[in-house]
Amino acid sequence: MDNNIYSEIKIVALEKVKVARYVIISPSPENDVVAYMNNWAKNSGLLDVKGYMPRKFGWDFPFVSEEQRAKFNLRGYVYLYTLPENFTPKCDGAEITYLEADEYAVMRITEPFNNPFETIPNGYKKLFEFVQSSEYKTTTWESRYCLEEVIEINGITYMDIYIPVK
């Protein structure tokens, strides 16, 4: 495991934000739900909003049965786009809700998709160890999520992983 791909951990606050989200359960849910939501964003008129700069977050959807996992090799993933507060979509197909304000421990992973089934879980392991052994220990998980945000900077892919704290 290359430790140079993991950033220092920082604590950040995210404000309450209106979002459109969707869940897919499939053998490759990340790819499927990202494609679905990219298409929804285009068809809904979201990408035509002047000055709109989307933030997109995802997380593993835990409500997949043992049979779905074992027998059909299925996993679930949630993906969302942040929305301008006054935005009304031109089409259905995504749940419009809010991601509540929260504080997170955040770590950036460089090129997470080079070995995603090792790199990303190891990043979460490091982040969980930090949170659980510090003053930031998570006390409740109700309506809180571990978030993933993929960012491209100068041709390099990064993933910021977020764990709610306190």
Q: Mean pLDDT across all residues, rounded?
A: 94
How many angstroms does the end-to-end distance come to?
A: 29 Å
User: Strands of the biggest beta sheet: in what spatial order?
Assistant: 1-6-8-7
Q: How many alpha or pi helices?
A: 3
| Percentage of residues in helical conformation | 10-25%
* Derived structural class: alpha+beta
Radius of gyration: 16 Å
**Unreliable stretches, pLDDT < 50, 5 or more residues?**
none
Strand content: 25-35%
Query: Strand tally, please?
Result: 8
Summarize the helix and strand pattern as letters.
Answer: EEHEHEEEHEE
Describe the model.
Helices cover 24% and strands 35% of the residues. The chain is built from 3 helices and 8 strands; from the N terminus they run ββαβαβββαββ. The protein has helices at 29-44, 66-72, 116-132, and strands at residues 10-14, 17-26, 56-60, 75-82, 95-99, 102-110, 147-153, 156-164. Strands 1-6-8-7 form a 4-stranded antiparallel β-sheet, with helices on one face. It has a 4-stranded antiparallel β-sheet with strand order 3-4-2-5, covered by helices on one side. The two termini are 29 Å apart.
